[in-house]
Amino acid sequence: MVGVDDVINKLSTVIDPDLNKDIVSMGMIKDLDLNSGNLKFTLELTTPACPFNEEIEADVRKAIDELDGIKNLDMNVTAKVMEGRSLDADESMKTVKNIIAVASGKGGVGKSTVALNLALALSRTGAKVGLLDADIYGPSIPLMLGMKNAAMQVEDKKLQPPESNGIKVVSFGFFAEQEHQAAIYRGPIISGIVKQFLVDTNWTDLDYLIVDLPPGTGDIPLTLAQTIPITGILVVTTPQDVASSVASKAIGMFDKLNVPMLGVVENMSYFECSKCNEKHYIFGKGGAEKISKKHNMPFLGSIPLNSGIMEGSDLGKPVMITQPDSPSAEAFTAAAKNVAAQCSIQHYKMKEEAEAEAKWDGLSPEARQKILVGLIDEMVTLGGNIAPEDENKTWAELEHAIQDAIIPHLFGESKVQTTPTTS
């Protein structure tokens, strides 16, 4: 007769494709009950925007079907967004589970359009989403959402963000007549405005806060990275080399600040002719994939060139709202799901790193030395260097590259797939 242990063991064979871990060890099976062959449990996904939710659900049903003695299956599928950043280190924004900064090396790549439609796509999956327009000099989100007349109120010393299409929105564009006034401020004042938008806004219970950064590597990206722990950076580029090469410089800045890179999205990837159905690569091809390979970061999606995207933005009617079933909206949705998956991966990477820190700090210098000796050749390949004194360093004192190399040796293999091949 089939028992609970048999069910658990069988469900342990189902692997989450993004996280490379079984669903039982990740705690995705809740409230399991087995009574006279009647099986009931909840499958709790790591995000409502999981790109593999249908695949995982099908794998679970198939696994249960292979068990003899199960008469009926009552499976409830839910989702709970994981925290992809350290909330313990962020007293001011504890109710925001993930902060995703959307960056680009240069202007004109459609970064704000991508940020807006990704936010809307995540919201359509059922996630609670906020959007912060951090481009103080050229805020465009109010225009793109048709919120030119919106205003922010202050209650209990907190800015209250207005809502549009289910997402909370904050922009400097709500505070000035942007058609007539230029934001002429020096760096410290700009940094102060961004900090206030972050920590003095009522971001209540958000799963994802999308931050639309200005292009380049100036004060605002630095302020964000140094003010609060964030889940990671999403880089937006276009296919041509001039855009991707400048984007690499932005990636280099965030690498120096030890901010995780979630991946890269390519905007204006191609134009698909409605008459011949052929794809025309107007701005070249493969720029984002080159960045992905060069920096060992996931390629999360391609957004086609479409006049409807531009027209919708100018009219305050984003394509995710006006044409939710269009190829453009489907591309944004696919990219948003991949971004959400990367946030879940960051959550489990943080857990893994915390376990690694406890394990490393508990080892003797002799045991540490044995691990480090085995890493010498590997670190030469990676361009790193192991020093004799590293065996006496705590986990926090080790270089990040050395930490990454040590983790597989502490656990046998890395438990989290860090650069999935999503597209």
From TrEMBL:
UniProt KW keywords: ATP-binding, Hydrolase, Iron, Iron-sulfur, Metal-binding, Nucleotide-binding
GO biological process: iron-sulfur cluster assembly
GO molecular function: 4 iron, 4 sulfur cluster binding; ATP binding; ATP hydrolysis activity; ATP-dependent FeS chaperone activity; metal ion binding
Ranges for domain MIP18 family-like: 5-71
PROSITE patterns xrefs: MRP
InterPro entries associated with the record: FSCA_dom_sf, MIP18-like, Mrp-like_CS, Mrp/NBP35_ATP-bd, NUBPL-like, P-loop_NTPase, YlxH/NBP35
Domain of life: Archaea
UniProt-annotated binding residues for ATP: G105, K106, G107, G108, V109, G110, K111, S112
CDD domains: Mrp_NBP35 (cd02037)
Job of this protein: Binds and transfers iron-sulfur (Fe-S) clusters to target apoproteins. Can hydrolyze ATP.
The protein's assembly and partners: Homodimer.
UniProt similarity note: Belongs to the Mrp/NBP35 ATP-binding proteins family.
Protein name (database record): Iron-sulfur cluster carrier protein
Native source species: Marine Group I thaumarchaeote
